[in-house]
Here is the input.
Amino acid sequence: MSDNESDMTPAPLEETCPIAVASGQGLCFQLVWDSDKIELYNDKEGKQRWRCHHCGENWAGKNHTKALRHVSRTLKGDMKPCSGKIPPHYKDAYMALLRSKEEDKSARKERKEVLDIGLTTTDSRTLSIYQDQKSHRKRPPKELQDLTLASPLTVSTASGSTFLSTVSRKVPKHASLQTTLNGVRGTTSAEARHKANVAIAHWILANDNAHNSAEDPLFARVVRHVQQCGTDFKPPSRYEIGGDLLDATYSSYYDEEKGRLMQESKIFGASLYGDGATIKGTPMINVLASTPSNPSFVIDVIDCTEHMQAGGKKDAKYIALEMLALMHRVDPGKTIFNQILFDGASNVQKAGLIMEQHFP
Here is the structure.
């Protein structure tokens, strides 16, 4: 046997699926449908069904969780446990698959919780930056309207006028009268949910977004926050998204990533790397830093347009001066960066030698 052939020898089943090996007969299922005792088929009407050959029962549809709980005899919901005689090696394989699925579900839940905590922290930091930006450009409040003025109730009956006078108060123009009177929003009706689903699907499909966009954790946060707003809520304009909100979001993520870089570099140090590029006619230099858990922190993207328009070139001196300025900004004490990485182009290689003299 050659070395190549020995390298391709599959790993023993005990290593790939250790729990499923029993009674000298190894079984390892990635899906319950992999078992030769679980049959998927279509009935005479073309509808999908599945049959358990351990007990002979059959069910409509194709529900992996229900089928697995049936053969593993773990009761949940309305699924009946298998009443047939299941050989030990099949039972072990089903239980191994069930444990694997439950561990995956638990891990996904944990990752989701960690992600939600991280997003909450990031959003809070972004909100603080955004509010600080807005506080420097305060605008006069919108004109408010008294809903009791020119109201049909106030001009039609005295009782209506008396009633409204007890709750008369100024509210935003777009607030509904019902919201004004009771201040409580009821549960969402089925029709309202359907309308919302149609609107979301229409937005996703019309903009050619991925269909799983509706399951994105960030989108779920959008829905939760909008639900807490009144009926006068309006999404930010494209100018605000591309202006203050973009600046606040960028600053929030930049500060977070820089903080991670500074923290890890105390132990491991950090690497600096970059390269020149011209994208759609715009000359630039990408400058990134790397630590063990953050291999691609973008420090800056240097726009070289003015330098090139003035007759300059992206030569060694220019690259070295621009990158040294960034290095001093991030690491004024010269204690973080311990290596600089470039490709084999002569200009960046020479720039590296210049930077080494000023940033040993």
Q: What stands out?
A: The chain has a mean pLDDT of 78. Residues 268-358 form one domain. The two ends are 52 Å apart (CA to CA). The CA atoms of residues 34 and 152 lie 69 Å apart.
